[in-house]
Amino acid sequence: MISTPHDLTSCCSRPDTFNTCLSPHSAGHTLDLVIIKSDVVVTNLYVGTMISDHALISFKLRMMRSVEVNVQTVTSRAWRRLSRDAFASDLAASRLCSDLNALKDMSVDDLAKLYRDVMTNLFDRHADCRAGRRRAETEEIQKTAATIGGSGSRC
User: Fold this and answer.
1) Degrees (nearest 5) of the Cα angle 11, 14, 20?
2) Separation of alpha carbons 41 and 23, rounded Å
3) Is residue 23 a part of any domain in this protein?
4) Structural domain of residue 123, as residue ranges?
5) Tens of pLDDT along 68-117?
6) Per the structure, how many domains does the chain have?
7) Which residue among 35, 62, 89 closes a domain?
8) Verdict on whether the full-model pTM lies above 0.90
9) What is the rounded CA–CA span in Å between residue 126 and residue 78?
């Protein structure tokens, strides 16, 4: 942020910036200062007619899009294609729901593994995993998600 004349001078003296000073004021004062990187092209520069002692300045900037795109591959499930009736039917026929007496003697660890295996199998059949690409989240967002508890890469 430029807040002092020294800040402005140091900004304009950087080798990667180009500054354009326009004087749309009839008294010769500089009202507008455009500071851009040296690889940005200014086109269609127009200083309008004077209204009182001011004029409108308009221009277009032609910029190159950054080549470096931070992309990550993510997996997600096709939840919109999930048929709830078919899923409920398959769940009712699974080991989790078909014979509850067989589950009584299982340990908590075995029940958790059974639950994970059955549900993963059902989800793979009814809402398969899809790989896709998206812009990577910033490090700050990732840290926030990790503190909330979102860390998994599985669907």
Assistant:
1) 65
2) 20
3) yes
4) 71-137
5) 667 788 888 888 888 999 999 999 999 999 888 889 999 999 999 999 99
6) 2
7) 62
8) no
9) 8
